[in-house]
């Protein structure tokens, strides 16, 4: 069974799981206001799929997959940094906060969520993105743009050898 919903929609999470409903949709990046300063560009959109399910023990759960590309600010050169997003998370629904079991062992990676009659789909997507995005996004070494920071620029333009080159020179002398 498939339902389509606008991103401003809320879902009844328990009902969504029990009926195995599914939403395939896109969300415009400019709507992701909680990502705030992380974003270097508000352009574009992400795709997401939210699915309800019952596990083998008939426990209700939600699965969210978000994919696309976000343009973040590189923490080194402050230039735009295109970051591929491909995040999937799965939650078991519980009635109350107290129903969330303690992890059985260190490998227990189950996630839980308190069921809600009007859960915001957008909140869920933003939560997932905030967890999935790098805390300090930056280009790979040497990939920072020409607008790099002053220090990077001085290092690039100076003719001083790298520490490794210096070490080589010292070795040869010895
Ligand atoms: Zn950079």
Structural write-up:
The protein has 174 residues and is an alpha+beta fold. The chain has helices at 13-18, 121-132, 150-157, 163-173; strands at residues 10-11, 22-28, 45-54, 60-73, 80-94, 112-114, 119-120. It contains 4 helices and 7 strands. The strands form 2 sheets. It has a 5-stranded mixed sheet with strand order 2-3-4-5-6. Strands 1-7 form a two-stranded antiparallel ribbon. A hairpin with a 5-residue loop joins strand 3 and strand 4. The protein is globular and about 70 Å long. Zinc ion binds next to loops.
Layout of secondary structure:
Blueprint: E1 10-11, H1 13-18, E2 22-28, E3 45-54, E4 60-73, E5 80-94, E6 112-114, E7 119-120, H2 121-132, H3 150-157, H4 163-173
Parallel strand pairs: 5-6
Antiparallel strand pairs: 1-7, 2-3, 3-4, 4-5
Hetero groups: zinc ion
Low-confidence stretches: 1-6
Main β-sheet, in a few words?
Answer: 5 strands, mixed
Number of domains: 1
> How many β-strand runs?
7
Assign an overall shape: globular
Secondary-structure-based class equals: alpha+beta
Strand content: 25-35%
Rg: 23 Å
- Spatially, the strands of the biggest sheet line up as 2-3-4-5-6
**Total of helices:** 4
Mean pLDDT score, rounded?
A: 83
Task: Measure the end-to-end span.
Answer: 75 Å
| Estimated helix fraction | 10-25%
Organism: Pseudomethylobacillus aquaticus
Function: Plays a role in synthesis, processing and/or stability of 23S rRNA.
GO cellular component, one term: cytosol
Family: Belongs to the DUF177 domain family.
């Amino acid at each position: 069974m498939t339902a389509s919903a606008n991103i401003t929609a809320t879902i009844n999470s328990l009902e969504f799981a029990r009926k195995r409903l599914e939403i395939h949709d896109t969300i415009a990046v400019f709507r992701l206001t909680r990502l705030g300063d992380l974003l270097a560009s508000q352009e574009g959109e992400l795709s997401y799929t939210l699915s309800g399910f019952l596990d083998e023990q008939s426990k209700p759960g939600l699965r969210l997959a978000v994919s696309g590309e976000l343009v973040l600010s590189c923490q080194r050169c402050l230039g735009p940094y295109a970051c591929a997003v491909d995040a999937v998370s799965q939650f078991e629904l519980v009635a109350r906060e107290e129903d969330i079991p303690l992890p059985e062992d260190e490998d227990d990676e189950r996630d839980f969520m308190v069921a809600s009659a009007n859960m915001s789909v957008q909140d869920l997507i933003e939560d997932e993105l905030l967890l999935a995005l790098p805390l300090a996004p930056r280009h790979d070494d040497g990939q920072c743009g020409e607008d790099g920071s002053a220090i990077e620029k001085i290092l690039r333009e100076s003719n001083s050898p790298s520490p490794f080159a210096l070490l080589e020179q010292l070795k040869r002398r010895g």
